Amino acid sequence: MSTVTSETASHELQVAAEQHDHSPGRPAPDPAHRRPAVTLGAAGDLLRALAAPVRIAIVLELRAADRCVHELVDSLGVAQPLISQHLRVLKSAGVVYGERHGREVVYRLVDEHLSHIVVDAVAHVEEGDR
């Protein structure tokens, strides 16, 4: 019976981890391509802002055309205060911005990158339903 020291066991685990390939055929990750924690945190905040079904629906609507609140209320069948609350979240996250036109504020997406995230997520779910 052999005695294994904690140092030997630790070394063996490290060697096994280095030899284990989770992604055969893919290059090993390059540490130079790691993102700063602040960037990853901001991306997480953005994804959390997009994480509500009503906000996803709003982004899809705004992808089609700029809309004012009452148009979003009509098309989504959601109460005006709830639409306004979700628009505030999206606005504070930098997903949408509003431009006043007389008595109304017309909302639009800040850029198309954000709508692609939502469209891809919805498409992914729909593909799984098939």
Automatic annotation (TrEMBL):
Organism: Actinokineospora terrae
NCBIfam families in alphabetical order: HTH_metalloreg
Record-annotated HTH arsR-type domain positions: 35-129
Protein name listed in UniProt: Transcriptional regulator, ArsR family
Any one GO MF annotation of this record: DNA-binding transcription factor activity
Chain positions covered by the region annotation Disordered: 1-36
UniProt keyword annotation of Transferase present: no
InterPro entries: ArsR-like_HTH (IPR011991), HTH_ArsR_DNA-bd_dom (IPR001845), Metal_resp_trans_reg (IPR051011), WH-like_DNA-bd_sf (IPR036388), WH_DNA-bd_sf (IPR036390)
Coiled coil: none
SMART domains xref list: HTH_ARSR
Keywords: DNA-binding, Transcription, Transcription regulation
Pfam families the record matches: HTH_5
